[in-house]
Description:
Radius of gyration of chain A: 35 Å
CATH topology of the largest domain in chain A: Heat Shock Protein 90
CATH class of chain B: Mainly Beta
Distance between the termini of chain A: 33 Å
Number of strands of chain B: 11
Strand order of the largest sheet of chain B: 8-1-2-11-10-9
Number of helices of chain B: 4
Strand content of chain A: 15-25%
Radius of gyration of chain B: 17 Å
Structural class of chain A: alpha+beta
Number of strands of chain A: 23
Strand order of the largest sheet of chain A: 15-19-20-18-17-16
CATH class of the largest domain in chain A: Alpha Beta
Oligomer: heterodimer
CATH superfamily of the largest domain in chain A: Histidine kinase-like ATPase, C-terminal domain
Number of domains of chain B: 1
CATH superfamily of chain B: CheA-289, Domain 4
Number of domains of chain A: 4
Shape of chain A: flat
Largest sheet of chain B: 6 strands, mixed
Strand content of chain B: 35-45%
Helix content of chain A: 40-55%
Helix content of chain B: 10-25%
Amino acid sequence: MSDQYTNEPMLDIYIFETIHLIEQLEETVLNGEKSGGYSSEAINEIFRIMHTIKGSSAMMLFSEISNLAHVIEDLFFFLREEKPTNLDYSTLTDLVFESVDFIKLEIEKIKNGDKADGAAASIVDQLKVYIHQLKNSNTDISEDKPTEQETTKTQYYISQSFSDILNYKHYYKAEIFFEDGCEMENIRAYTIIHNLKNITSKIKHIPTDIIENDGTIQQIREQGFVIYFKANQTFNEMHEFFMKSLFLKDLELTELQDDESWPADNAVQVEISSNIIKGIIPLNQKIKSESNNENQGPTTQGFISVPVGRMDKLMDLVGEMVIAEAMVTQNPDLKELNLDNFSKAARQLRKITSEVQDMVMSIRMVPLSSTFHKMHRIVRDMNKKLNKEVQLEIIGEETEVDKSIIEHISDPLMHLVRNSIDHGIESVEDRRSNGKNELGRVTLEAKNAGNDVVILIKDDGKGLSKDKILEKAKQNGLLHKSENEMSDKEIFNLIFIPGFSTNDAVTEFSGRGVGMDVVVKNIEKVGGSVSVDSVMGFGTTITMKIPLTLAIVDGMNISVGRSCYTIPTIAIKQSFRPKETDIIRDPHGNEMIMVRGVCYPILRLHKLYKVKDAQVHFHKGILVMVENEGKTVCIFADELLGEQQVVVKTLPTYIKRIKKIEGLSGCTLLGDGSISLILDAAGLTNINKQ
Amino acid sequence: MADILMQDELFEVEDTQKGKYLTFNIGTEFYGIEIKYVTEIIGIQVITEVPELPEYIRGIINLRGKIIPVMDVRLRFKKTFREYNDRTCIIVVDIKDISVGLIVDSVSEVLNIPERDIVEPPQMNRGFNNRYIKKIGKVGNDVKLLLNCEKLLTEDEIVDINEAL
Lengths: 690, 165
């Protein structure tokens, strides 16, 4: 993944961060629109996000993005300060989304190593016009009572600066120990207090009479010098302040939550006349510390981001450890020895390794929520454009799947949701006349089912019409069976065939007949499957079944000569030992077999891959029937070795560079450390065609 | 600051590796390979054959969970195949981020060959071995053929294979 990017780590971080921020922004904006207005926190958050994007984009020299972010920042600054009342949230949201889309596009370009060459000028102009309009309309209203507003405004500012001086934002407690043998601890403590007075007037310290009483030296040496104070500075700034002190051995700085821990009156309060402070604390410094505060917020959470490459490596190592463990505990040298203590220790080792394995797997798991929440945006856009009223309901967003899988299912999910709204849900009038709730409903549901995750996309629309599907399939020559023989499910699943679209009108969102088969292809890439069910008039349910992780598949190991191959179990239909007499040979030497009235081609693996010492007689080997996308082939192997979960690894790059080997998708390590090649069902069924 | 330190380290590493060659033999000839390419040396392992590859790529091996291809240098130089024995070694090299195992008859030692003892190979008209020999090193009375590792795995070879097929 990271290979695609430029190798600059700064750029990687910028891309990662910006994408993350943009997602956050979209969600905030959507929530704002839904609740019919932005809360002040939402406005602040958008403001902050845009501020960050502006800053980092400017730093990375992406001036268009930074310009755009700047204008949006202006817009939200206006909203925050003026709180206009007659706001058209829907226009505002449209504008913000347009900008977001622009930034997304540019980021995508940067990610692919292209130049970010888009011009934001038109959007910037639109936004500027919008801000201008807002300003005008807002002053119109306020003109009615201009004096009042002015006075409240000034009052507001006074009160703020006033309160800033009396009520400091943070309460701190600092415990200071000086270096052993530095002498005159009381004087040093006084120096700190003196410096601290430049920052704040609210200081209390223990012991109190440091200058007058030399006895305090001993106390400071033993118990440390404790200062309670209030300040506007952030924790880090204060920490830095104290660390500058001379002979400092140990500093314990804590931020106190409230006044309660403020020491009682037995401590002396240091008073400084307030006019001095006014001169010392410039206003902009305060603002600076405020914004610092906000930026530091999220970093304190207990998360670290790790490059995916390292995770993959860790997983490889753990997989290797599992194999090594098996090699030790099941070592043939240990056979028939009675080793009680050894087996006890080995059991312990096995337990720990499996726990480590589970943990590593769980680290890679990511909840589906962000993918699901992206759909809100699509639903909103489509509602507007298609004049439908659809509500999105999300169930089970906390279900987790492997990170690499999330990347693969996001696009298909989008297709399906679009399809549901565009084709499934009827227009408001139709719904009303059919006696349905006017508000259409699309449900996204995720749940765990064994080793799979099942994702359902349900809508309560008009459902699929069997007749229409059949008619369309006939028109396009996609029917291979007679209509009467087909089950409902088979008919519905026709919509996944490439080139099938029942919607007569091609809209912006769907109808080109590429959607559904792309969905299927994407899902099959990660080893999943898609099926559809529908009840006429009541809606359609599309079910996606996705394996929990890409890295591990269920496979059937087969042997050919001395080589071992693995076929994904999902592709295997059946396996059987044929009689020599069942085999049909055509004049070109192609072999076929008749099973239940259908003729399947036979693929001899030993011939295909030129394996020596392999079984050549059908009655001594076994045939494995493999199906992919409706094509079936029988693979002839020596014997079945058994089913097992295998960790998929790609073939070395050197080999991939030399030649793309047909029918091989990768390799895997078996329990005894040997390598098995993983057969690719799609590749194998296609080889035969040629 | 950190960058400068890193650079210093890099220089040091390069310095200690400079002029050092791992020597191995195939039949009666001695070859040398720059030590900076070598990751490790392992004994012969169980090799899993991979179909449809040129003969000199014997297959893939499992190196502590990493799967790497192995190339029989004997076959690469169009010599006859020799059964592997307990002297046979796999030299794992890392060339331009590609790990490959080289199967050789036996590994001898790491030698320091100073610049002055290294000469250009003679210009022969059509010696095919020449392609992989970068320089010739003199050690005492012996001659070590210094391999051009990158050429061992280069693209033009790939073209050849495709043509042969």
